[in-house]
Amino acid sequence: MLEYTGDGAFESVHDARTFIENYRQYLLHGFGRWLIVRHADGAKLGWCGLRRADNRLEVDLGFRLAQEYWGQGYASEAALACLNYGHQYLEIPEIIARTHRSNLRSQRVLERIGMHFEGECAFDSEPGYWYRSTYPS
After folding, report:
1. Domain that residue 27 falls in
2. Phi and psi dihedrals of 113, rounded to 5?
């Protein structure tokens, strides 16, 4: 089946669980992660979306892009679209985002889309920062 989907094999059980959990997000909450596709040529750039943070009530905004698409505004465009969708369409009053302390690009994206720095946190067992957006702001 992988021959037809273009997906590679999972590198770990954790990766497989995360993939399956994203499907559960749609069933449980009506939202999840979405593929970012460039309209001009159909290139698959990465993903962006909303999910319930593990064992938490907060809705978390996340994004990942292939390195070749960094610094071109795609992350900001996708993140803003997901943030607006969450607030305006899904009526989620508060959305958070977390990033590694060393990931300056993601921090700039979150600030650019109007999220506010809240403080330090652990993110993937690494030092990180977290941001918040409230609606209406």
Report:
1. 2-134
2. -90, 5
